[in-house]
Amino acid sequence: MSADIIKGKELAHKLKEEMSKEVLFLKEQGLVPHLTVILIGDNPASKSYVNGKKKASGETGISSDVIEMGVSTSEKELLKKIQELNNDQSVHGILVQLPLPKHIDEQHVIEAISPAKDVDGFHPINIGRMITGKDTFLPCTPSGILTMLKSYDVTIEGKHAVIIGRSNIVGKPVGQLLLNENATVTYCHSKTTNLIDFTSKADILIVAVGRPNAIREEHIKEGAAVIDVGINRLEDGSLTGDVDFDAVFEKASYISPVPRGVGPMTITMLLQNTIKAAKGLSKSER
């Protein structure tokens, strides 16, 4: 057997076309969804991510702007800017591009953003709502992964999902979303012994470890669905994931590629959250 490739880029394009129609309808009602991104410093990777978000916003008709602040910006100055945006009724979504300089406390920044404008889905209130199964802004990468699985009719309920990685951005929340869908969830991480004992029993395997080709054929259960969140740049400049794609391809039933897999879906979910925020804030103002 060989796997069906879960084409995140194609799915993202389809979803953005649907969003464009929704944004057009909202504009006809006088509501223009607006996303503001704050970029601290001049990290090339962060700049690239921000440019990608701005481009994708434009493709769906969402208004967006980028506030660039110097690397020496103090935490107090950043928190003041966030408060200004919280109070600005024309701004529906606020995103502070991570990582931040070491002198700024990331958690202070996340908690300063109004939960109603937290389109990254990182605020403790929104995380709490996600854990308890309430409607909220879902973290973008985990939400994108769940959408990919559902779009390809991968059965989640009753299945054993194994998550490799326990970050607050991907690992922990994606496990919670799968639990909410009635999967049985196991978390693995850097301290897990005999990793293969867990991965080889997974019906759904989500890999987010940040090491190229760390997961190989022997780690995979026959017929598993494999989502590769990793993105690693090799010495020759090419990109690869955390999964040895060619080796696993012959054994899995579904697999996401790198690039053109999870990445495009992450940005698409951000846009979806921005539209949701605009509609929610508009409703609260009536």
Automatic annotation (TrEMBL):
A GO BP annotation: L-histidine biosynthetic process
Task: Say if the entry is tagged with keyword Protease.
Answer: no
Q: In this entry, which stretches build a coiled coil? A: none
Q: Does the keyword Glycoprotein apply?
A: no
- Pathway(s) the chain acts in: One-carbon metabolism; tetrahydrofolate interconversion
Xref: InterPro entries = Aminoacid_DH-like_N_sf (IPR046346), NAD(P)-bd_dom_sf (IPR036291), THF_DH/CycHdrlase (IPR000672), THF_DH/CycHdrlase_cat_dom (IPR020630), THF_DH/CycHdrlase_CS (IPR020867), THF_DH/CycHdrlase_NAD-bd_dom (IPR020631)
Q: Which reaction does it catalyse?
A: (6R)-5,10-methylene-5,6,7,8-tetrahydrofolate + NADP(+) = (6R)-5,10-methenyltetrahydrofolate + NADPH; (6R)-5,10-methenyltetrahydrofolate + H2O = (6R)-10-formyltetrahydrofolate + H(+)
The EC number(s) attached to this protein equal 1.5.1.5, 3.5.4.9
Enumerate the spans annotated as Tetrahydrofolate dehydrogenase/cyclohydrolase NAD(P)-binding domain.
139-279
Q: Name one GO molecular function term.
A: methylenetetrahydrofolate dehydrogenase (NADP+) activity
Q: What does this protein do?
A: Catalyzes the oxidation of 5,10-methylenetetrahydrofolate to 5,10-methenyltetrahydrofolate and then the hydrolysis of 5,10-methenyltetrahydrofolate to 10-formyltetrahydrofolate.
Please report which protein family the annotation says this sequence is part of.
Belongs to the tetrahydrofolate dehydrogenase/cyclohydrolase family.
Quaternary structure (record):
Homodimer.
Q: What is this protein called?
A: Bifunctional protein FolD
Q: Which classification does the entry list for the species?
A: Bacteria, Bacillati, Bacillota, Bacilli, Bacillales
